[in-house]
## 1
Amino acid sequence: MTMLGQEILPGRGVQLNLEVAHLHTRTPIQVPVLVERAKEDGPTVLVMAGLHGDELNGIEIVRRFLRKKLNKPSKGTIICLPIFNIFGFLNLQRELPDGRDLNRSFPGSNSGSLAAQFAFHFMKEIAPHCDYIIDFHTGAAQRNNFPQIRCVFSDQESVELAKVFNPPFILHSGLIAKTLRESIVKRKKKILLFEGGKSNNIEENVVEEGLNGLKRVIAHLGMRNYKIDISKDRQPIFIGENKWMRAPSSGMFQCFVANGTAVQKGEVLALVTDPYGKYEKKIKASQTGYVICINEAAVVYKGDAIIHLAKEKPQQ
């Protein structure tokens, strides 16, 4: 295997650097890529996070995976990319310095924007080596996603891998133009997208869900055996139809329901108030289902997404 100009022999591990851009001082920005190749051939799995620079839960999942030396396979190759959007991470911001969302810039261009160049070099230098990709994300801004895997339900292999990961929820999510997931699927490779928690936070329950799910997938692919303590009694809930409830007016927002719980249509979930004691608006569930994301902002504007409700979809 040769990646980023360096040969990686069987049984060896290396740290490579994806060099795409420079600071204003001309100092190169290096994106570390850690590769562990077993002596025995097998699948190649890319474990990545930090596509958005402020999504720290995913970065912590990959960091812990590395720290515990769980990335050393007995078969195949594991590639770890803990922080892809290194510019965003340095500034604790979602976007790159050009203001573009890296996850809306694929497959990229060598002569395009900074985001397009990042995407292009990833697709050229790293993606061709990968059979499977596990991409870790969190909710944007103050939106807190309950741990979930997103995939296309018509892709049976991806659904089976999602079941192996065993998150609380498996959500049908169609491909979005110019995302990493769309570009990878077009190249006939498999990708699971994990969502958990909110930006600029490290949440232990989210990290543990992601780390254990990752270990399950690696073990399922026959690349390494792990001791997994999480009970197998839990079955993931499959989610089909889902809808955001939006703030009916601007004001202070208080949510009464816990993330991840089941709710009934008409149940009071939250309250929007004014600061002067003259206005209160109860927010009632628009449908029976599960809460899979909550906006944790204390102040909202009319039309802001506040609670994400989802209906269970029976398995076919």
## 2
Amino acid sequence: MIYLLISICISSFLFVVFKLFDVFKINTLQAIIVNYFVASSLGFGLSGISVSFSDIPNQSWFLGAFLMGLLFIAVFNLMALTSQKNGLSVASVSSKMSVVIPIVFGVWIYNESVGVVKIIGIILALVAVYLTSAKENKEKFQKGSLLFPILLFIGSGFIDGGLKYLETKYVPEGGVPVFSATIFGFAFVFGLIYLVFQSIKGGFKFQFKNVLGGILLGIPNYFSIVYLLKALSTEGLESSTLFTLNNVGVVVLTTLFGLLLFKEKLIIRNWIGVVLAVISILLVGGFLAV
């Protein structure tokens, strides 16, 4: 459980970093690409394993890491497109509600337990995520852009579900650091390719502060994935439970960070969402019965 708590804290801090990007006018795309390079370098440097890069393609998880790297950068761009086409609230809810996909994976593929209490907890968690993300100002919803929220929902969910599947089926004991570093490495390469195309179109403007922002993001981003993967390998902790606790925990802690650090205002729905989130954590975690 300690790995899950660490992952929640670090993942929540990432949102603080993104908020600082907005404050200091850092180019998010460039910082994200640098972040993947930093995270990949950390993974290979701190793994404690002598890695031959020529051996990595022979690993059983190599193709999965390739696809996950592509998903990482693709989902980021989907998040940007959804924010532009449908508004920030829609993007936030589409991303966070995707927790239902790894939950279904856990119950269907791994035959994880599902009872009345857990079902109630999961439903409350989904409601809590929506209410906590809801904003007072209603952004215009464009029906023609419904494709982007749907793809964001699916992509975010498949990232969580894919990490669990690969960690369970293909990643050997002690192989998490190299596996996660390889995913970040592929995400960096795909992001770099995207940046090259952007520069050809004339939309590239380099600023050194974007590199600094990427470094600030890359360090916690690496450890958030490592500790999430470690939590997934915890004995007796089902993935359907873990992803619910992780997602709701991040929502609650991020909300508190916004309240305390950036003086963001919460409306009644947000507070109701926070309360429901806590109740859902207690239910799914088995700390409360109904």
## 3
Amino acid sequence: MKFRRKSARDDVGGAADPTDEVAAAEPTEETAADEPPTGPFDADDLPEDEVQRVDLGSLLIPPDPGRELRVQVDERSGAVQSVVLAGQDGAIEVRAFAAPRNGDLWSEVRPQIAADMAQKGGTATEREGRFGPELLCQMQVQRKGGGTATQPSRIVGINGPRWLLRATFFGRPATEPDQAGEWEDALTRIAVRRGEQAMRVGEPLPVTLPEQARRVSPPTP
């Protein structure tokens, strides 16, 4: 997987026996065993799927054909601020945060994100998605060449054991959420490593670059 570094600036039918219906609805042990586990995963509970994930400290990202792994780095401190999977039709930015052992941090954070969007002149509409409640957002942004444009995004939050994984979709997976299955599948293969250190709730989990990462700046779009 190639890395890119980016500066952070920013039934109709007869009657049936009801017991037959129950038997048909309930999967057998053999069927359940055949179904692969789905994530996002905790790093301590990774399945034996033989996937070689890129170790970024708190995030373990699997290679994804057709998408490029980029890291967003603060030029002054050198700290990695976020991780992005980018493709031809969109991108996902993923960030992990410390969370309570037993709790629903995403339910607490979601209205805060919506309020922040509104304060900045944008909108955030809640909808039910594959991972539960999510936000469809619209925000006015400044173009590099001058003027403004509306940037759509879709924000998903997934609670894990002592962590929250937040994913922000841009491009087509944001504007056409019902057609974003492949992008969402990529999210389910990610793992989060919380670590044992004490951290404040909501504090970003540290992300580190592997030695083999190519620290180059992407071309200006």
## 4
Amino acid sequence: MRRLLFAAVIAAAVLAPSATASQLIDRNASGIRLKVSRDGKAMLSYRARGRHWDVLAWGAINARPPGKARKQVQFRLDRAGGWGTFGRKLRFRNACRPYDGPTLVHVVTACKAPDGSYWAVQKWRRTLPNLGFAPWRRDQRALAVHLSHWTSPLAVLEGYTDWSWNGRFHHIFGRLTYLGRPVHGYRTTRQGARLDKYGRAVYLDTFGSRHGPGWRRENSFVTHKPTGVFCYTFRARNPLEGGYAHPPGYRGGARGPGNGLAYRMTVEGPGVTPDVKWEGKGLPRFNPRAVAHLAYERDMNARLDQFGDRLCRKH
């Protein structure tokens, strides 16, 4: 009876649903190793929180287009290496071959399975505080470990820079698509955080801005339903309003605007596909008498209008 009770507790723990991502496996892991069996199971081994982990993942590949009829694909996870599902620790020879797929960002390790599908582990700082704050909590500095499994082309993250409000502000916009179809979710919180596994957030970093030297997290926001489009205006924002996290006792007033010399945007892949990134240069201050600036702004406004997003109409 004691053994049965112990087994039930283990099963409940290791099969709990994971957070949405390409798929989030853990944080701040070291010594990461990936093995793939011939029957399509992956074992991710690493150290975290002072102990060794063997996480078994299976049962998901690629991504579904947004829809309310079916859930987005997600791995089944056994954080005890098989004990919770199969009653034993699974051991198998690594059947994965060297990786020859598309270029990946933030990659730790990747390989090609015997069936021609790809597996990859990526690691990056997803939870940095917005508005350029330096992290003041350990969880904000955490490196998220994401696992992906796919055969399809990667998601496409488009990004464009221009100005808005007749040149008053710097502006960035774009679109996230997968297999030519928009990627978006259906529900968010009042502050814009996603509430379903179809939703994807764009994590926007700025370099050489008023926030300070180096790269800083400017903000994060979801792609819009039903277009997969996003748009963001760089303006001063008060951390004490709008649900922004801020250091204890902060009384410094508005932050920014955070426009900089360069930008990068990172998005978790839809379903269990890899995370993707866009990088681009910042723009100078808008000059209404510069012919090149006027022509560029007209082109970017036309491109934004072509996306047909009702939330991104302001030029």
